[in-house]
Amino acid sequence: MPNVNWYALWLGLKPRMLIFLEKLFWAALIALAALVALNLATSLIRRFFKGRKRDPHKEKTLETLLTSALRYLVYAVAVMLILEQFVDITPIIAGAGVLGLAVGFGAQSLVKDLITGFFIIFEDQFHVGDFVEINGQVSGTVEELGLRLTTIREWSGKKFYIANSEIKTVRNYNREEMRAIVTATFPFEEDPRKIREVLEEVCREAAFELADELIQGPDGPVEPPHVHGVTDIDKSDKGGQFTITALTKPGSLWVVEKTLREKVWQACRDNGIRLAYPARVYLGGRNNEF
Domain Mechanosensitive ion channel MscS, which positions (predicted)? Predict the structure, then answer.
C-alpha cells in the first residue's frame, strides 16, 4: 500500500483529501515565501539608496518605483506557482494571447495608469516629498509615486489615492524659483503716499530677515520684496489695493508670504493705518441699512 494511503488511513482521511491538503500546504508555503522575498528585497532596495549622495526626493521616488514594480512581479510569480499546485497552467500560458486580448479591453485604465506613471517618473514631473497641486483640485505633499497610483497627503492630514491616468495638470511648488505675491487693501480715506512709505520700510526689513528664503545674486537678492504701488481699485468701493512681490527659493513661497503679511499688518497698526474691511452704513430709519 502506498505511503499516502497509509497516512490517509492513519489520519482517517481519504487519499484525495490528503493530496488536496498537501497542495494547500505548498500553496501557503509559496505565499509565505513570496512575502519573505518581497520584504527582503524591499529592505535591500532601501539599504542601497540609504546614504547615497544624491537628491533625497529623487532617491525616494526611485525607491518607491522599484518597490512597486518588484511587488507586481513577485505577486504575479506567486499566483502562477500557486495555480500550478491545483491546475495545469500550460493551457493558460498557451492561451495567454487570447486571454490578454480579452483582459486588455477590461484593463485599459490599468494600462493607462502604468504608462502615465512611467512618463511622470521619466519626465521628472515631481518627486516624493514635493508639494504639488493635482488638476487644480487636490494639493498636498507627494507621499508615494508608483506605476499605478500617486498618493497625496493634504495639509489637513487627508490622504488621497489618485490613479496616474487621472492626472492631467500638475503644479509643482518645489521646482525652480517662485514669486511671492502679497496684497493689502486700504480705505480711500488713508494717504497712499504714507502707505507706500510704510510698506517700503516693511520690504527693507523683510529683505534682511528673509535673506535665506530669497533667490540671491552676487549683489544680494535678485528680486527683493518690492512695493508695486496701487495695483487695483476694489470693485466694492472698499479702497485701493497695494501689492508686494519677492522672488523666493523653491519651497519658500509660504514662509515669505506669511512673513510679509504679518509684517504689513503690524506696521499698519504701529503707524495708525487702517486695513479695509466690509462696513455697514446706517442712513437712518429701520430699513435703511446698506
Answer: 110-175
Domain 3-94 grouped into CATH 1.10.287: yes
Q: Which residue has the cell 508608483?
A: 146
Q: Tens of pLDDT along 255-288? A: 999 999 999 999 999 999 999 877 665 655 555 5
Q: Determine the Cα–Cα distance for residues 152 and 161; give it in Å rounded to an integer.
A: 7
CATH for 121-172, among 3.40.190.10, 1.10.287.110, 1.10.645.10, 2.30.30.60?
2.30.30.60
d(CA 60, CA 129): 8
Match 540671491 to its residue by C-alpha cell: 216
Contact 171, 132 (CB under 8 A): yes
- Between CA 251 and CA 176 the distance in angstroms is 9
Q: Which residue spans of the chain are classified as CATH 2.30.30.60? A: 121-172
**pLDDT tens per residue across span 204-215:** 999 999 998 998
Neighbour count for residue 215 (Cβ, 10 Å): 18
- Listed in order, the ranges of the chain carrying CATH 3.30.70.100 are 178-270
CATH topology (fold) of 178-270: Alpha-Beta Plaits (3.30.70)
